[in-house]
Amino acid sequence: MWWSEWPSIWHVLLVGSAAYATLVVLLRTTGKRTLGKLNAFDLVATIALGSVLATAVTSPDQPWALAVVAMLVLVGAQFVVAQVTTWLPRGRWFVTAEPTLVVRHGEILHDALRRARLTRGELDQAVRSAGVGCLHELGAVVLETDGSLSVVPATAVADGSCLVGVTGWSHRSTDAAG
């Protein structure tokens, strides 16, 4: 039984190595966005790529060329979506979430925090990681489209131009603070 599976073992070794190398080449040639922090579409594409790779490696009935075509389709779709959302920024909502303000001028926006399903502990951790010691030193904390938290100290907000487009921020937000 241990040694009767040599054709399958060779299949896994050869196709697995070739499919892995192909996937690495595809990901490297499509740029950093494919490998960066994941939004919903990137996550789906990554999971699908993993499934294609696993099927190619473990299924002797699946030809390597079919796996390569499937990987090309998935990486190509991810590339097309990235290009389209770059050209048509209004279509970006379909693929990525909007950035959301969870702290404004040192005040926690509890409703936004709750809607984002963030805990106070997660917020505090992001603030500490940014080197800020208390909420009053904050201009803004933004839950980004990739799920990370960006911390903007109050001294760095200035006109708030980098916060335009963030749900919960407005020019009136800066007026209220100063």
Topology:
Layout: H1 6-29, H2 32-35, H3 40-58, H4 64-87, E1 100-104, E2 107-108, H5 110-115, H6 120-129, E3 138-143, E4 149-153, H7 171-177
Antiparallel strand pairs: 1-2, 1-3, 3-4
Explain what the structure shows:
- This protein is of the alpha+beta class and 178 residues long.
- It folds into 2 domains: 6-94; 100-177, CRO Repressor (2-Layer Sandwich).
- It has 7 helices and 4 strands.
- The protein has helices at 6-29, 32-35, 40-58, 64-87, 110-115, 120-129, 171-177; strands spanning 100-104, 107-108, 138-143, 149-153.
- It has a 4-stranded antiparallel sheet.
- Strand 3 and strand 4 (149-153) form a beta hairpin.
- Helix 1 packs antiparallel against helix 3 (40-58).
- The longest helix is centred in the first third of the chain and has 24 residues, at 6-29.
- Mean pLDDT is 79; it is low at 173-178.
Summarize this structure as a short list of keywords or feature phrases.
178 residues, alpha+beta, CRO Repressor, 2 domains, four-stranded antiparallel beta sheet, 53% helix, 10% strand
